[in-house]
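can u do me a favor
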C-alpha cells in the first residue's frame, strides 16, 4: 500500500541584506585598541602632554609610568575580554612582581607584565585561546612600540570559576583576601 503525502508549494523569496555582516575584532586590532587607550590613560595620570612622552618613560623603565600602564592595560584588557566572552563575570589585577627586598634596593621589574585574575562562570578552552591570542598580539605590538622585540608575554592571566571562588581554592581565595586583595578593573 503506497502512502500519499500531500505536497504544498511555497514561494521562495530571495533576501538581500543592506548591512555588512558583523565582524568580530581580531587579536591585533584589539591589541592596538588596548595599547592606545593604555597610553592615553598613562599620559593623563603622569601629567604629560602626549603619548610619545609616555613611550619615552616606558623605554627608560620609569616605575611610575609602568605602574599606570599596567593598570591601564589591565582595565582595557578586562573590558575587551568581557565584551568578547559573556562567560566572564569580573576581571581583577594584582601586583606581586617586586619583593620588599627588591624595592628596598631600588630594583624594579624589567617588563610590563600584567597579572590578572578572570572570574568566569566556568573555565573554557575558548577563553584560554582568546587570552593567549591577545597576549601574543600585545607582546608584539608593545615590543614594536618600545623597541624590545624579545617580549613573549605581557599578560599573566589566571582564570577562576564560581567553584574556585566559593570554595576559596587557588586564586579564587585571593578575591576575598584580607591582606592582598586584587583590584577589580571590570565587572559585568
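np, heres the sequence
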Amino acid at each position: 500500500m503506497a502512502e500519499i503525502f500531500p505536497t504544498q508549494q511555497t514561494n521562495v523569496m530571495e533576501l538581500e541584506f543592506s548591512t555588512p555582516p558583523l565582524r568580530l575584532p581580531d587579536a591585533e586590532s584589539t591589541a592596538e585598541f588596548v595599547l592606545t587607550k593604555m597610553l592615553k590613560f598613562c599620559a593623563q595620570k603622569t601629567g604629560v602632554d602626549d603619548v610619545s612622552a609616555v613611550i619615552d618613560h616606558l623605554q627608560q623603565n620609569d616605575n611610575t609610568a609602568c605602574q599606570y600602564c599596567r593598570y591601564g592595560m589591565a582595565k582595557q584588557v578586562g573590558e575587551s575580554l568581557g565584551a568578547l566572552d559573556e562567560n566572564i563575570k569580573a576581571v581583577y589585577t594584582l601586583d606581586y612582581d617586586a619583593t620588599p627586598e627588591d624595592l628596598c634596593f631600588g630594583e624594579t621589574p624589567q617588563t610590563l607584565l600584567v597579572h590578572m585574575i578572570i572570574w568566569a562562570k566556568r573555565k573554557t578552552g575558548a577563553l584560554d585561546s582568546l587570552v593567549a591570542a591577545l597576549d601574543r598580539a600585545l607582546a608584539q605590538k608593545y615590543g614594536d612600540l618600545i623597541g624590545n622585540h624579545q617580549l613573549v608575554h605581557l599578560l599573566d592571566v589566571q582564570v577562576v570559576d564560581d567553584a574556585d571562588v566559593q570554595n576559596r581554592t587557588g586564586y579564587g581565595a585571593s578575591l576575598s583576601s584580607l591582606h592582598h586583595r586584587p583590584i577589580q578593573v571590570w565587572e559585568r
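The longest helix spans residues 63-84. hope that helps!!
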